[in-house]
Inverse folding.
């Protein structure tokens, strides 16, 4: 599919990122799932493992991790 919505999925771990991106395959998109990337590719659907699911300290650490993931999704081309 050439027309691409800019959809970002932020997940706590890589399994959840792929689970969140998988339904877009049925619609003809090719999602990209990445583990804590520093930059993101140009893709219609990008799922990011923010790494907050594996953090032992829980909610406080997740709150510190997620803003960076959101910023990278917003800044992508």
């Amino acid at each position: 599919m050439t027309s691409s919505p800019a959809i970002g999925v932020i997940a706590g771990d890589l399994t959840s990122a792929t689970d969140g991106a998988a339904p877009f395959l049925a619609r003809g998109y090719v999602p990209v799932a990445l583990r804590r990337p520093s930059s993101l590719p140009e893709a219609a659907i990008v799922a990011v493992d923010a790494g907050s699911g594996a953090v032992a300290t829980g909610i406080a650490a997740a709150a510190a991790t997620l803003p960076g993931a959101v910023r990278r999704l917003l800044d992508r081309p």
In short: The beta strands are 7-11, 32-35, 45-49.
